[in-house]
Each structure stands twice: as structure tokens, then as C-alpha cells.
Amino acid sequence: MIPVKFDYLAPTSVEEAVSALGEHGDEAKIMAGGQSLLPVLRMRLNAPEVVIDLGGISSLRGIRDDGDAIVIGAMTTHHDVRDHELVHQHALLLSKAAAEVADAQIRHRGTFGGALAHADPAGDLGAPALALGAQFVIAGAAGTRTVEAADFFVDLFETAIGEDEILTEVRVPKHTGWGAHYEKFVRVAHQWPIVAVAATVRGSIDEARVGLTNMGSTPLRASATEEALAGASATEDGVRAAAELAAEGTSPPSDLNGAADYRQHLARVLTGRAVLKAAGA
Amino acid sequence: MTATQDRPAAEIGKDRRRKEDQRLITGRTRWTDNITLPGMLHLAMVRSPFAHAAIASVDVEAAKASPNVVAVLSGKDFGDELGVCINAWPITPDQKTPTHSPMPADRVAFAGEVVAVVVARSAAEARDAAELVDVEYDELPAAIGIKNALKDEVLAHPDLGTNKSALWVFDSAEAGTGSDVEAAIEEARTNGILIEREYRQQRLIPAFMEPRSVVVDPTGEQITMWSATQIPHILRFALAATTGVPESKIRVIAPDVGGGFGGKLQTTPEEWIAWAVARRLSRPVKYTETRSESLMAAHHGRDQVQTLTLAADKDGKVTGFKVHLDADLGAYIAVVGGGVPVLGAFMFNAIYKFPAYRFECQTVLTNTTFTDAYRGAGRPEATYAIERIMDELAAEVGVDPLEIRERNWITHEEFPFMTVAGLEYDTGNYEAATRLAKESFGYDALRAEQKERRDRGDRVQLGIGVSTFTEMCGLAPSRVLGSLDYGAGGWEHASVRMLATGKVEIVTGASAHGQGHETAFSQIVADRLGVPFEDVEVLHGDTQIAHKGLDTYGSRSLVVGGEALVRAVDKVIDKAKHLAAHLLEASEDDLEYNDGRFTVAGTDQGIAIQELSTAAFAAHSYPEDMEPSLDAEATYDPVNFNYPHGTHLCAMEVDTETGAVKMRKYTCCDDIGVIINPLIVAGQVHGGLVQGIAQALWEEAVHDEAGTLVSGSFVDYLLPTAADTISFDVVHTDDPSVCTTNTLGTKGVGEAGTIASTPAVVNAVVDAVRHLGIDDIQMPCTPERVWRAIQGSKAGGATETPPDAAPHFADGEANSAGADGALNQDEGAGQ
């Protein structure tokens, strides 16, 4: 498996990276951990002329407290997201989802921002980021801008990040003390989820946020379920009734792992389970 | 001069860690791809993206102009020197066999077939240039799927006029081994129980860890080929037979080989192309496939539709069994392609006393990757069919599945037993293995829990699956293989070299590719010859060193190759005795041989085998009637197969809401005769179980209707890892039924786990939901299939799942073609 020849740039600052992107345009690809990009290159499904590796930009790594939000650097690994105290306290759902990404080797290499920018609808982090109302900080030649999660995911492998821009950090509003669970349905452990449900709840149940993985061309919110859950009690029957609404408005893919109607069924079942576990019921 | 170590306790039965593991696990060894020769060139293949197409033109100019490209050759650039890929096992005299050119010039018959080769100074340059080869195809309709192909509406090879290659039949009434199966069926129809089923053996991919790799060096007097193959000797023979090079001018080396599972029991187009290119250019060349190429173009396994009719009396005693197989050969009949399903002919009756039996195997050509041996080869398919349908019989009669087996199996007093398929089982004790397995499994407690969960209507139901398997292994015997029209014998060869320093080299014609021969064979020689384990070196896989051999497959290395080794060692001891008598000035009759030392009975006089080796080397004093050498060799051809058996019990939990299945417990009690190295046996059993379980639950090679392999990467072809399996409960009978046809009493174990486990798992899944009215779920038992079966929409039937790959590795498009001619998965998908 030998990729097509490419030039390799390793900028040490965001400015340098943005300027390299500006210079090479759509001939360049950003590498942010490489766990999705390298297989694509090795299988020759894509052949960029330049690969810009963000691995050398130390300011993109790390998690910090910023008042009403925590801020996760785009190049923070899944492993570090999973284990970070701030994430545990204020965005437990992200920790739960990060723990389920692929396998240990990939979690130590792959990055939070890289996965979100790749925007595979079967990726594990989009649904939790959407559910938590994350904000995406994107840097370009003209400076930085912030995009709401609802506007960030545009389509299959497509985000609001422009061709000459880089995702630098993700601001996650604090959900301190919220219960959380990421229910991932796979046939083998290292697989992408066939369907997964990211649920986080305040109290039992005052408020609920539910994100769906692989139920459309982007991560989705199960809004009808969220509304039905607000103020509901965390009983099995009550939660399951709300979860029956989870597949509304979804358009999941059909592939070797399941047809669309089966995925919609799974979304309903898994939503019930995820919410009950998040509520500690 | 002798510098040997003290001999420890008996080796056979000892948990020796494998001496080969350090180098194999670290990879610091001679894998074929690690071999680099001076001036070596690298090959990249250009493969057809179409399952069936005429080759209109091949434009190689741009590729030739690419940096450091030495040559670009397509099929029309070669003549007879390219040779052909052979089918060594035509199963009937009138078998329709398409010509299999390693690189066809006119028409491709499966997606992945090689149409051109690029030769460059580096592998990267060859790969880059391969993308510049412009092939124009005129697409032809493709015959995809067994049932479609049988209609003969679209032909895989239009010149053959049909997709039906051969029909092979065994009938117990005609063979005189039993009565007429049709009479039994008629009787059962009116007076007994008749069970008719169609089971699907999905297509699998062997998926060995080391991709195939070949190096050819034409610069010496002999042309040398290194290949990641299971069969260096057969490969050498086939090269000589098809390329016009004398066998004596060919040296084939299988260096360390990283797994095969039958997938490297092949003579491949890529080997033949590398051979022809090296000869054409008079330069060493290397070709190593990518994983994508491996999944697409290395041979696949299984792929059968099994139509079964089981007749029984009202008590569940089987009166007849009729089997019709339709087996997908793919586009060509590979080296033993047609023979693999035929091997099943002898195994559908399994451990049972069936009075009547008929077996038919219709082989079918399609425009897909050719199929051939995969771990178990013919026997897993047979075992699956019989063990699944015995569970159906038990359900029909309303008794425990173990009870129905006991009513039909051969009891231990009845051995040796001539089966309805015409084999003589020498030994076995199904009662003992079953008793022990049941006990260790906690059978009664799990049945009680199953009942409790059913009564409670629990969301998670429990099922228990049984598989009481046997198999024929140790392929051999040559006369039997001859009677089946197989193109070679089944003997094995070994030689023993007694070195001057007292060390021992043994040479085996078996060709290990991960099995642990070096360790197990050293243990055998250590005990038999009385030398330290560490003093034994095992040589194999190089036709100039191991000049005779028939290689490794069919659980044959220990039971055939090990016996050849024992016989060679015994000849060494005989020679040594003669020399010892001479040197000790004693009569041979007074000599005793123990722990590597001859002693004169009743005296303290003696001489060690190592001293005798040195004495034979010096040759200063030896008998007149003896050559100064202790070396010996032996060729062994067994008179029978051997018949390992066992009882496998599996408990599966089924989530009735999602269809997800989860293994709860797996116990197996295998009777494999005498065990040389329990650690190696445990490895074989554990690995074998996982491969069989994977067929039941995970693996399936799927082509779309255009003939594109949809499960073309490990994203979609699901191999399990340790994270997906549980800790197995592996036990063996204390008092095994020892094989009577070899000295060591061993039986094969390499395939046992794979053969036995698949039906145990599926039986357990079906058992968990049988009370919901389900009697079959197609393999692999995906959550979706289980869920749909429970929904009743398609109980036991084909899946509704479209053959699409998940798009994780393409930016926006489902595995779409790049400029390199990669397969376009969109074509024909979404049926």
C-alpha cells in the first residue's frame, strides 16, 4: 500500500498552517492525526499534492477551562479527551464517546478536531458534540470565526470549514453534573457504529440532549425525543415512549451492516437504553 | 567434539513454547517481502475493475514513459513462456475447465484479474506507473451468484456453453456401502419424519496476515522463486509442467510464511507473471500484493448452496440422507478448486450410522474470484449441514439435541466402523467426549436458565448449540486420492542428518506457515532419538534442502510428516546400533538403546548417539558392511485418513429487541489422540474456533450484481479480534482414542476447531429463538438477520441488506474510483 507521492509540510503555528493552506489551496490536505487520511492515501482514494501535518502545532493540543465552557484543542487525542478531568466534570458525554472510538492505538493517535473535521457521519464524536451544542472555532487568513454545531455539519464528509481554513478548537458549554451515556451498536469491537446514540440528561429528567450517529449524512439531534423527555420521569416506560420518536426525520444509509429501516429501529431501541443509562435508571 | 546439553525429561506431552515465535512475532525474519536482491526490480499489477469484459486495447505508452519504469507488459506480449494456472483435481472426466491464463490477452472473467504488469526500479514507481496504463474494456454481462449462474442465461465463459462445470455423485446403493436413499425418503414421507432444508455457505476470504509475495531470481544456474506459499513442492512441479523449464532448473523456497489457512494452497497468476517477467528481463523481481489486492484476487473459500433431505423414523433414527451441493468455483477452477466441495462427500454422514446416503456436487462457474481451500476445506460445510439438520430433527422429535445424536451415533464398541460413505473409522469415543463436554459446560444448569428466561419472556434469550463433529484428515492416502482423480499423492518425506558435532538436522517435506512444526517435530525427535530438544534443527520449505515433499494442508503435517520422521529416526537408530556394536565390540543383540545411549546389557559399557555421529564422521573405524553415515530418510504413505472428533457446546444470548448475539460460554472436548505439545494444540483449537465462529457471526464476502467485491476491505469484511471473543473452555478426554494407523497415535488438529464450531454457534442462536417460530438464520447471523427473523418478515431467508460498502474511506463517494482504476463500488449497488 503505497500512496501517491506528496509533499509534506509540518507548520509549527496556526498562522503558518493557514498560510500554507492559502498557498496550496485544494491541492493540500490537512493531517490531524492521520487515522482517516492515511488509509485514504494508502488505498489511493485521494492523492493530494501536499499534506499539511498539524501535529507540530503545540497550541492546538490541550483542554482548558473558559468560564461557562471548556475548550478542547483540535489536536487533542481521543485518549486525552476521554481521561481529562474537565471533560469528566463538564462534558461527561464526550468522555464516554471518546472511550468508544475505534481501538486504543487509534485513540492515542487520532484527534478530536481531526475526527470532527473529517465529518464521517459514522464517527463517534459528531453526535455528542451536536448534543452538547459545541461551538467550532475556525481560523483562516482573515482571522477566526465561530460556528454553532447545528451549522458545522453540512453533509457527508462536509463541514463549514472553508478550503483555506483550519479548525483550531471546540468550545463545549458546561453541562456540569449531567448524566451521560454513549450507546454504540457494532458487530465487532473495532467497527464504526452501525448506529450510536449519545444521550446526556440533567436530573431525572429535567432536560435531555440526544444525538444520533450514522442516522443520516450528518450527526442528528433527536429533537422530538428531547422534547418528550423534558420533565418526564426516568422510568422505563416513559423513556421508551419518548425514544419511539427518535427516528423521526432521520435518513440512515443502507449497507452491509443494515438497511435503513433496521437502523431506524435500532435508533429507537438504543435511544431508550442510552437515556435510561444516562439518567442512572 | 560433541558439545550437547543434558537431556531433560520426556518431550512429548510437554508445553514447549514455540522456538519459532521470537522471529515470527517480531518480523525480524525472512518473510518473502523482506528479501532484497542486487538489481532487483519491482512489479505492480494492473487489474480489471470489471467482472466480465473483453479487452479492447491496452495502451502502455504513458506508463512506459514514467520515471524508472523498465517494462510494461500485457497479455499479448507473452507467449507460451507465461504458462497456465493449473487445476490439479478434475473431479470428473468430462469436467468443463476454462483455460486459466495468468494474464489473459483477450477477456477478463473476474474483477481483480491481472491485465498488465508494470516493472520498475522501485515498488512506488511501479505502482505510480500502473495507474497510467490505459485499458479499454467492452463490458460483458457477468454471471454472479450460484442460482443465477445455474440458469445458464448469462455465461461466465461463453465458449464453454454452460456455467455447469461438473457433477460428482456418490450413492451408497451404487457403491455397495448402504441402501437406496430414495426408498428411505419415500418411507419417511408416509411413516416417519422428513426434513428438507436449504443452507447457504457464504463466501469467505482466508485473510492470512502476511499478504502474498513472490521474488524470482533468474541469475543463477537454477531459477529461484521465493514465495509466501503453503506448497513449495507442488509449486515447483507446476512451474516445470506449465512453463517449459526443467524441474531440475527450478528451486522454490517458502521462507517464513505468515499464515495461509488454505489461502496459500495455490499456484497463483501473480507467481507465474513474476516468473515470466524475471526470465524475460533476466533480472530478479519482486511482487508483494496490497491488502486490497489480497482480499480481491487471492482465492476465496466456501460458497455453496446445500439442498438437504433427511429421512428418519418417528423415534428420530435416521434412515437416509440426501445431499445436493451447488458449489461456486468462481471464474476458474483453481488448483484443487473442484475437489474441495467433493471432500465433503465423505463427511455428511459424520459420526452417525446412516443406512442410506446420496451425495451430489454440482460445480458452477461464475464471474467472481476463484474459490479453493479454506481451513477445513469441504468438511466444515458438511459438518455444518449435518449438525444443523440433526438439531432440526431433535426439534421435530421433541428431544434434546444430544439425545437425538446418541440415538444415531456409532458407539465406542463398534469401532472400527465402515461408514455409509465408504470410510473406515479406526477409533473414537463419542460418548466419552460428550460426557466430559457436558460436565464442563454445565449443560443442565444452562438448560434450566434457558427455560427460566423463556418462561419469563426475558428480552435476552439464551440458546444452546451442539456440534458433535468428526473429520477425515491427514491428506493422504495416495491410493485414495488417486481414486478421486486428484493429480498428486499424499505421502510425506523426512530425512535425518546426524551432524559431526552431535547436533541433529531433520528435513521435512511439510511446509510450515505458522503451525509450529519446528517445535513439535523437535520434541518428537528428542524423545525418539534421545537427544536434547535444543539440539534438533528443523529444516523445511526449500526444494533444494527438502527435495521431496507434499507440503502442508489438510491437517497432514504431524500425522503424515511426523510419521515419516519417526521412520527416518528409527533407521538412524538401526544404523547407529550397527556402528555401536562394532565400536563396543559387542553383539547387536546385547545392546540396549535408552535416552540416546547404547549400553551393553549387564555391563557399564556404552556409547552415546552423539559419539556415534562423530565416529561416523571421522570414519576411522566402522564395519565392512556399512557406509560411514548414520543419516537416513523415509517416505511414508498412510493406509487411511485419521478421524479426530469432539463435542462442542455453545451458549449464545440473543437480544430479541436488536437481534444482537453474544457468546456466553463455549466448551469443546476434542479427542485428537496423543498430544505432542498441548500449548500448540491449545493455539490451534482457540484459533480454529474463532475462525469457525467468525463464519457463523461475522465474515462474508459480498459481490454486488455487477460482480464487484463490496466487502473489499477490513472495514466491510469483518474479522474478529480478541475483543470480540470470550475465553474458551477447552478440554480433552483423559483416555483418548488413539489413532491406530500411525506410530505416535496422533490425529490432526489444525482444522478441528473451525470444522466444529460454526454449527455449534448457529444452532445456539436458532435455539435461543426457536420458541418464536424460527428454524433457521442465514450465516453470518448478523443482528439484522436475527432481528428480521424475529420480525417474521424473512425468517431464515436471505437478507434484505443491500450490498453496499460503508463509505468511511472515500471523501464523499462510496469507495469510488480514483485515477488508478480502483473499483467503482457504485456500479450496480443498491439493488
UniProtKB/TrEMBL annotation, chain A:
<dbReference type="InterPro" id="IPR036318">
    <property type="entry name" value="FAD-bd_PCMH-like_sf"/>
</dbReference>
<dbReference type="InterPro" id="IPR005107">
    <property type="entry name" value="CO_DH_flav_C"/>
</dbReference>
<dbReference type="Pfam" id="PF03450">
    <property type="entry name" value="CO_deh_flav_C"/>
</dbReference>
<keyword id="KW-0285">Flavoprotein</keyword>
<dbReference type="InterPro" id="IPR051312">
    <property type="entry name" value="Diverse_Substr_Oxidored"/>
</dbReference>
<keyword id="KW-0274">FAD</keyword>
<dbReference type="InterPro" id="IPR036683">
    <property type="entry name" value="CO_DH_flav_C_dom_sf"/>
</dbReference>
<dbReference type="InterPro" id="IPR016167">
    <property type="entry name" value="FAD-bd_PCMH_sub1"/>
</dbReference>
<protein>
    <submittedName>
        <fullName>Xanthine dehydrogenase family protein subunit M</fullName>
    </submittedName>
</protein>
<dbReference type="InterPro" id="IPR002346">
    <property type="entry name" value="Mopterin_DH_FAD-bd"/>
</dbReference>
<dbReference type="InterPro" id="IPR016169">
    <property type="entry name" value="FAD-bd_PCMH_sub2"/>
</dbReference>
<dbReference type="InterPro" id="IPR016166">
    <property type="entry name" value="FAD-bd_PCMH"/>
</dbReference>
<feature type="domain" description="FAD-binding PCMH-type">
    <location>
        <begin position="1"/>
        <end position="177"/>
    </location>
</feature>
<keyword id="KW-0560">Oxidoreductase</keyword>
<dbReference type="Pfam" id="PF00941">
    <property type="entry name" value="FAD_binding_5"/>
</dbReference>
UniProtKB/TrEMBL annotation, chain B:
<dbReference type="InterPro" id="IPR016208">
    <property type="entry name" value="Ald_Oxase/xanthine_DH-like"/>
</dbReference>
<dbReference type="InterPro" id="IPR000674">
    <property type="entry name" value="Ald_Oxase/Xan_DH_a/b"/>
</dbReference>
<feature type="domain" description="Aldehyde oxidase/xanthine dehydrogenase a/b hammerhead">
    <location>
        <begin position="26"/>
        <end position="141"/>
    </location>
</feature>
<feature type="region of interest" description="Disordered">
    <location>
        <begin position="793"/>
        <end position="831"/>
    </location>
</feature>
<keyword id="KW-0560">Oxidoreductase</keyword>
<protein>
    <submittedName>
        <fullName>Xanthine dehydrogenase family protein</fullName>
    </submittedName>
</protein>
<keyword id="KW-1133">Transmembrane helix</keyword>
<dbReference type="InterPro" id="IPR046867">
    <property type="entry name" value="AldOxase/xan_DH_MoCoBD2"/>
</dbReference>
<dbReference type="InterPro" id="IPR036856">
    <property type="entry name" value="Ald_Oxase/Xan_DH_a/b_sf"/>
</dbReference>
<keyword id="KW-0812">Transmembrane</keyword>
<dbReference type="Pfam" id="PF02738">
    <property type="entry name" value="MoCoBD_1"/>
</dbReference>
<dbReference type="InterPro" id="IPR008274">
    <property type="entry name" value="AldOxase/xan_DH_MoCoBD1"/>
</dbReference>
<dbReference type="InterPro" id="IPR037165">
    <property type="entry name" value="AldOxase/xan_DH_Mopterin-bd_sf"/>
</dbReference>
<feature type="transmembrane region" description="Helical">
    <location>
        <begin position="329"/>
        <end position="352"/>
    </location>
</feature>
<keyword id="KW-0500">Molybdenum</keyword>
<keyword id="KW-0472">Membrane</keyword>
<feature type="compositionally biased region" description="Basic and acidic residues">
    <location>
        <begin position="8"/>
        <end position="21"/>
    </location>
</feature>
<dbReference type="Pfam" id="PF01315">
    <property type="entry name" value="Ald_Xan_dh_C"/>
</dbReference>
<feature type="region of interest" description="Disordered">
    <location>
        <begin position="1"/>
        <end position="21"/>
    </location>
</feature>
<dbReference type="Pfam" id="PF20256">
    <property type="entry name" value="MoCoBD_2"/>
</dbReference>
